[in-house]
Structures
1.
Amino acid sequence: MDEGTHKSVATTTAMDVPLQIAIPVSKILPWAIFGTLLVTLAFYFVGAEQGATSIISGMGVHEWVHDARHLLGFPCH
Amino acid sequence: MVGNLLLRGFIVGIVAGLLAFAWARFFAEPAVGQAISFESAQDEAKEAAAKAAGKEPEPEAPEIFSRAVQSGVGLLTGLVVIGAGIGCLFAIMFAFAGGRLGDLGPGPSSAVLAFLAFMTVYVIPALKYPANPPSVGQPDTIKYRTGLYFLMMAISIASTIGAWLLRRRLMPKFGSWNGSLMAFGAYLIVIAFFFIVLPGINEVPAAFPAVTLYNFRLASLSIQIILWGSVGVMFGYAGAAALANKDRS
């Protein structure tokens, strides 16, 4: 009886443990926030600056990334 | 560890951007060129009509960068920046997914992750609001169109994450295949709902050549396939190497 219980516990554990050990969320989160912030800024400048909204005056940024903005699927003008 | 993955994602993304640029130069730029020719022809016709009616023609907007710059270094900048951004985001997703999505191994799980992200971030929003070439779209609706596009993208991302979480809850009760199908069905219902509810945008000029529009949208799709596809495949190797380095140290 004891042996049987022990066996079933061992089986469930073997199924639940993945081969690759997951990186703890607490270790990922600061990098995720930092990365997402930078990427959002980059996407904004290629995808929307001097189109829908404008931080820098003029049309220089818009015209420079013009073709990429169209081809990546962002509304351009 | 995560910083190392992020750096690798950044580098892989830059390479993906360069590949996308090489492809776009000869596959996408012809369609952009044709659309701009159409635009110029329309403008000239308008100017001629204004002159014939005895009115002053509208002053043309000054050209800031030549077409050669826009389709060269300009396009290169845009694609490399977006490529690097995709690479970084992908590294973060990979870090979260490692050991949480089952045991595919780094190569296949990286490819599957890239496919899901490509569908979520590009294909679903673009099915509702497809990419438009120059001269398609009225300048005064740009805010409205950009808002709707990003809204659709946010809905798409939230739906994919929601479906994933739902799948995880359903799987213990209904089994992995049945649970997955149910979660996917719920996902489809949500996406269909927003496709119907959100307003459509139809600003293609009646005279715009359909073939050019098709070629442009195909080019747009192919560029995104190259970006996500090469990030997914390359990061399979780069990410696995980062994980192996960690095990050794």
2.
Amino acid sequence: MADKPASAAKKSSDLSLRTIILPIVAIVLLIAYFSYVNPLFFSSSNALNIGRQSSVLLMVALAGTVVILIGSIDLSVGALVTLTGILAALTVDQYGLLGATLVGVGVGALVGLVNGSLVTMLRVPSFLVTLGMLSILSGVSNQISQGQSILFTDSLLPDLVNGSFVLGVPNVIWFALIATGLLTVVAFRTKLGRYLYALGGGEIVASHAGVPVTFYKILAFMLAGAICGLAGVMLTGQVGAGTPTAGSSLLLNSIAAVVMGGTALSGGIGGPHRTFLGVLVIAILTNGMDVTEVNSFTQDIVKGFVIILAVSLTIDRSKYLFIK
Amino acid sequence: MTSQTVAVRPELPGGRPAAAALELRDITKTYPGTNALTGVGFVLRRHQMLGLVGENGAGKSTLLSIINGTVRPDSGTISINGEAVRFGHPTEAARAGVATVFQEQGLIPNIPVFENIFLGREDKFCVAGALRRKAMIAEARAVLEELEVDVSPTALTGALSFGQRQLVEIAKAFALSRVYPVEPIILLDEPTSALSDHETAKLFDGISRWRSRASFVLVSHRLSDVFATCDEVVALKDGRVVEQRSIGSIDEVGLHELIVGRQRNAEYYREALQREPSPTIALRASEIGKPGHLGGVSLELRQGEILGVAGVLGSGKSTLARVLAGAEAQGSGDVVVGSAKLRPGSRRDAIRHGIGFVPAERSVAGIIGTDTVDWNLTLPNLGQIALGLLGLISPGRSRALTLDWMRRLKVRAPGPSAACRTLSGGNQQKIVFAKWLARGVSILVLDDPGRGLDVGAKEDIYSLMREIADKGAAVLLVSDNLPELIGLSNRIMVLRDGKVSAVFEAPKDAKPREVDVVAAML
């Protein structure tokens, strides 16, 4: 009895150590390599570039993390960012910055409510519900925009997003960092956070402990939707228009970032702080390849390999009976 | 590797009629930390049925896995028809005629019956890489007809009833003997646990007709099955054979004693600490019914009382525990705490009224393995460790609360932030108890709390239960383990087929006899 738990304990702490250290090691190695190839990579202006390029991705990855923590998945995040971005561009001139933000966050939460309700009440797997929702939202975005970019005249939104009020760091980066901090607090210091982990780790245990399972599952999808809505508004501010293709690359990159950070797709393990590291890996990799003039087709190939490698190193196989 | 013809050996000394189809000698298997089997041996004679009985964890499953080649023994020999065999893989056992009918069925639901029957042995029907489907169907039909199993070989397996699938599994075993010219040895692992009485009768009827063409080993919790079908019975206890007896030389009560083995030890169950329950009723259940499980069970649970619930598998005792704890909704009847009627199937409502629940499946329903000790322990207690206006959880308080309970329950773990899955079963179970004790529950529903725990851990859990009752909480204890039930309980309620068949008072100096409780169970 004594040796078995001890060795298991060692193994598991090894694993959690590995999932936190690997992204950091990857980040250090990537920075070292790209700086060696192109010294311009290692500069504060490029660091801010990386931040600007990845702030929206970080927001979307945080949204994905919330849903993945409970063991579900939300494939509609990218399409939702696109839709809310277009809605923000359409409403900002008439209702102002606050109005547009409320529309974005509100529609996001509403879509999350629908996703969550379908998963819990109709008991359709989240993969399929949100796959359908992805298609629906893309269709709606294209209907509304007729495939065109939606321009607006309001200047407050782009100024707020792209300006640098504190320490010369663009506000969009601050927003994403604040969101990461807030969500990390939510994850570890609130009932909601604890319940998200419990649902992902053992839904029956949670329900026996009196956790209103359905309510919190729906809440997780709504929270993810609301964050995506905010990300959509930020993206529109950043680009200066609402575009029907804006969010298309976000889905795959965000899932890659979440998993690379060490949040298990099976749920219950990981968290927003981990996702931050995962996004950093993706962002540095992408930016570094741009700076070192790797062509974009090769970039996709490299990114694919990195994702598979990272996941094969960090995944906790004890949670799976079969790998399919 | 094995003989390809069925050897008939001369009669054995002592006038035994048949040769040994399967003989195990001195089988030992050790898993890290436990001796699963120690020196196990028995003889299955040709065309007979041998019952294999024992408690959960006695080693029956390991033994079956060794016979069918899934697990390799550390030492010992297996002979089939007098020839020593050594299986490295289930396929080799199958070639020697050994087939297993699993408790959790081994058929694939989304393919037709005939494909299941020849699964993994399609090479016999292969011509230039293509399967001769018609030949397979014809062969499967021949087997099914020979056994008088009324199932079409082309039917989708998943569309059959559970009982029909059980018959198909047995047909699969016979089909093997057509592919390989050996007489089958069929291992039946709890074949009736999910069958209705009618289906059970049909299954045994079929088996009795096939007796002249195969030998059987039957593992069953239902002693009545063993008595209805077996010629001999082997009782296993803690990985050893207690005895092999002919069925005529023993009755159900005697067999049950062989299975349970140990004498009840008053010290072990802290019987001296048993107290008189208070007259105040903590929980009342009236006419709890659930179609197919419970047929109107009423009970009163008093403060400071440990009420034991006994019954065989399928008696409804686990369902009763889940209903009382709000983990499952009853069809009819009420659970009342104080003057409040509990909402059926609502754990939340039950918790609000002070009911803690220790479920039987610890790893699925009791503990979140990926979470830390303190996250598990505080899951129903977040209110206690939240601070300030925002109600943020205080890691310091969480840690302090956890350390306090770890100390009180003598939990052995590296610390509050150790992952729960790294703890031993006993320590995990203590965390499940602590979860509710930290909440200050007044009623505790326990479903087989000692299951799978080693002797030392059981002892700790028993002391804990005494302490809990002593502080005035009411405990409902459902258990498969009779000595445990008798030793710990103030009163024992016996369920049979979803109804109360007897109630025994069990004061500390006048515990009921096991035989009497068993008689009410069967």
